[in-house]
Amino acid sequence: MLVNISRRAPRMYAPLRARALATSASRLNPRSTEPVRSTTATQPHPLPPSKSFRPAATSIFTPLDTFVPRHVGPTEKDTQEMLDTLGYKTMDDFVKATVPDDVRISEFTSNDIAPYSELELLRRVEEIGSMNKNMKSYIGMGYHNAVVPPVIQRSLFENPGWYTAYTPYSPEQSQGRLESLINYQTVTIQLTGLPIANASLLDEATAAAEAMAMAAAAVPKGKFSKGKNVFLVSPTIAPQTVDVLRTRCTGFGVELQIAESNEGFKAEVAKLGDKLIGALLPYPDVNGEVIDWTSVASDLKSHGAMVVVASDLLALTMLKPPGEWGADIVLGNSQRFGVPVGYGGPHAAFFAVTEDLKRKIPGRIVGLSHDASGAPAYRLALQTREQHIRREKATSNVCTAQALLANMAAMYAVYHGPEGLRKIAGKTHQLTKVLAEALTGLEYTVTNKQFFDTLTVDVSTAGVTADQIHKTSVASGINFRRIDDKHVGITLDESVGPLDLTDIVNVFYRAKGLKEIQPNTLDDISQKLNFSAQSALTQPIDSPMARTTAFLPQPVFNRHHSETDMLRYMMHLQQKDYSLVHGMIPLGSCTMKLNSTSSMQPLSWKEFGGVHPFAPVDQAEGYKTMLTELEKDLSLVTGYDATSLQPNSGASGEFAGLKVIDAYHKSRGDSHRNVCLIPLSAHGTNPASAAMMGWKVVPIKALNDGSLDLKDLEEKAVKHKDNLAAFMVTYPSTFGTFDEGIEKATSLVHENGGQVYVDGANANALVGLTSLGRVGGDVSHTNLHKTFSIPHGGGGPGVGPISVKKHLAPFLPGHSLVKTGGEHAITAVSAAPYGSASINLISWAYIKMLGGAGLTESSKMALLNANYIAERLRPYYNLRFTNKNGHCAHECLIDLAEFEDKAGLRVPDFSKRLQDYSFHPPTAQWPISTCWLIEPTESEPKHELDRLVDALISIRKEVDEVIEGKQDKDNNVFKNAPHPLSVITGEKWDLPYSREKAAYPVPGLKKSKFWPTVGRLDDAAGDLNLICEVSNPSDNANFSSAALWKIGKRRRL
């Protein structure tokens, strides 16, 4: 939607303005003199304060729980001390020396975005939540009502020890969530029947698109160019998946064809023959049908085409695994394993492949390796597949996954175990059969031949219309799937009890004008069908595709079924992982800032968790209000005119932005524009996203000072002006500086016919000071999981909304099921119309609580914290790039190259040693292979910055010990780091330095220290012998390291 970003005074007392007062039927007429009673539990009085009153800063009524001092780490005293260290009297003087004057804007104030206190924010959220209608949705289509076990909700979903961790690139400090993610992979492998699985993808639709890309990449270029490029899709695949396939296919040169019918699918395969690269088959399909695709799969393979299957994990506990009937790739949504619907996300997509595709699978894979002592340990495997290595040669731009949600699904499987999962599936299936029997008795026709949990009902045979059914169901607080004027869809789930099923059936009774039934009527039907609690576990599905193989025999899935055991298991894993609860995580370009409890709290509320993404839009007024406000605020802070929240990762945002640019060019008759200029220093996702467009990537050099080589840019822009599509540039740069040539660079591109994509990954440095639009961008994504405080979740979720200038707004992403996007919208980039909608609450709350002035203050403090660290380290390390005043932006680049020659020490040695100081290491070997990139964010207090600096100074002194020969070059505290407690307390100690030097290099560590749980991981061994699932006890009863490696060698690469 277009957003007016002109600055204007807000309505007074904005935090308590309640749109719900004017729009909700539960509110009184505003002209009434009657009191407006609050429904807000946290509000201690019946009357909300006057909306026309905002207390002055000196008033007794001024809120005491303002957010800025909660969010910003340094105190006023700390701030002044840091400014003194840098040689400035005021913050304004420092900012002026750091951010170029020519791109500055008027700083945001509370007149731009009025701040809420924490209590005001929670009141406002409750008002918004009350605007969502709490309906029971049986729409299905890949989204189900889920029961989140309370022990998992409290101990994982709501636990900062889990949700504030970063992607486990520092495996010695991440063994807990790595173990949980390999549990997730094991669930996927066991239920799909395929040997390799990744640790999650963004959603089911994008997973299907990744599978299509894999199928295309597997075809030799010569054959592909000669017409072997058709991807055939069943007509009963979920429509949102088809949407995303359409968006992705063109860049890969794939011809997407939708089959006319499933019955004629085999004939279409024969007709297309060797033109096929693959086919996407639903199992079960969107209408609930369980189809035997065995013969089709065989035919596809005979034509050298991949068999891709979209499935359901719960259904697979009762259905034959697709790996047993010919699937090459199996994917789907794991949401129903204990994750709230949340208006579409976030949810973890599962993805499994055959052995020969393991080097082509997108996303992250957790694999088993061993540490320096030989003990088994987990790590991220086969990273050379990923975009940060392969760049434009990658077939996927996947960066963010859905680790937190994958961990929830994994724990759900651990808690229930194979028997519990089978009971849930069996009960759901049998209740669906009871429903079918009840509806058939009313003369409605169930069109499914075989089904698991979903029925397609022809209501015309009972003399009623689908519209009558829907009106009756909505009046009863129930949503069914809207198919056409004769058919409705009903998908059951584990939340359905006797009253729920009775309510469903009574909709069909009332539509016919019949008297309602009681639950005992359905109980009689179940007894007639010989259904019971025991039969739910033992009775197979009535289908030739019934599962006969056991699953999940591993002890971890058969041990933790009491709440006590489950609680302790999750705590055991949590204690192995370093997160923001332990200390700062100074990862450059990752922005590991505070994820406030007040912004996280509403995620657990049913008002937001239970809304189906395809529910009628009038049932999601609260979501609409929140999302619209967030779009407006993001447009303001980025300097653009319109925003789409659909992309559910930064990389997805990049791709969406480039698709919007492409659509704009095509609208002007410039469909030939296919060249993208990208600096060599760019994030790997940039060239990968451009490659996914089918564009040619032309690299742009950097000068010795890290700035853009404008001469090189101009030469290449002029050279390619007839075909120039876009220029992708990060601002501030990935080198951690405000490039002073940015405006000239963007002007050069515009002069030569291109559009400018300004990557907003580093926007935490500029909010309220300048903007991505101000420096010449036409479109940008921002990472809400960086700049706007969504937690990283140990490797996801994330949100990557795109903001655009007015001329690109008509092309913002649309959706086939819910009206979104611009007038000439590109097709969807995510399965849900608003992507990972529920976690947008976090960024909305973050912006509202900080307000305009607070956002500006946060940016200034992020700059100050980074420059304070850089200044203190300047005497000890080489600061690679700074501006003319010696300043970096929000992160500083430390070059360690000199120490490889002097001491034989490389960047990983420094990173491992820093773990011994109880720190997560900074971003290592990127954007330059010899560097650390350090970003402290505004949330870290000065004493934590000093702790990091003191650790790095101590490490520098240890380097001198190696240089001076006081420590051996090959056997020292660096090469043997990190030193886990098991090594420090072991009986054997033959290292040429003391245990105390290894474990407590600075005195403060004796009071408090986070211990890495394993020693340094052997990366090569883990890639050579890929083991990406928990071992089966029948292979190895004792789970010994040697036996694990023996198993792994069966999968030798």
Taking pLDDT < 50 over at least 5 consecutive residues as the criterion, the unreliable ranges are 1-52, 1035-1053
Percentage beta strand:
5-15%
Second CATH tier, the architecture of the domain at 167-414: 3-Layer(aba) Sandwich
Question: What is the average per-residue confidence, as pLDDT, rounded to a whole number?
Answer: 92
Specify the helix fraction band: 25-40%
Terminal Cα separation, in Å?
A: 49 Å
The largest sheet, given as strand count, sense and whether it forms a barrel, is: 7 strands, mixed
Kindly identify the CATH topology of the domain at 167-414.
Aspartate Aminotransferase, domain 2
User: Which word captures the global form?
Assistant: globular
Number of DSSP helical runs: 35
Write the CATH homologous superfamily of the domain at 167-414: Type I PLP-dependent aspartate aminotransferase-like (Major domain)
Per-chain topology:
Elements: H1 19-23, H2 68-71, H3 76-86, H4 91-98, H5 118-130, E1 136-138, H6 150-157, H7 160-163, H8 175-192, E2 196-197, H9 204-217, H10 221-225, E3 230-233, H11 239-252, E4 255-258, H12 265-272, E5 276-283, H13 294-302, E6 306-311, E7 329-333, E8 349-353, E9 365-370, E10 376-381, H14 387-390, H15 403-440, E11 445-446, E12 454-458, H16 466-475, E13 478-482, E14 487-491, H17 498-511, H18 519-528, H19 533-538, H20 563-574, H21 597-600, H22 606-609, H23 621-638, E15 642-644, H24 650-667, E16 675-679, H25 685-692, E17 696-700, H26 710-719, E18 724-730, H27 742-751, E19 755-759, E20 779-781, E21 802-804, H28 840-873, E22 878-879, E23 892-895, H29 898-903, H30 907-916, E24 923-924, E25 931-934, H31 942-963, H32 981-984, H33 995-999, H34 1019-1024, H35 1041-1048
Parallel strand pairs: 1-13, 3-4, 3-5, 5-6, 6-7, 16-17, 16-18, 18-19
Antiparallel strand pairs: 2-8, 7-8, 9-10, 11-12, 12-14, 13-14, 15-21, 20-21, 22-23, 23-25, 24-25
Helix pairs in contact: 3-28, 5-23, 6-15, 6-20, 8-15, 8-20, 9-11, 12-13, 15-17, 16-17, 23-28, 24-25, 26-27, 28-31
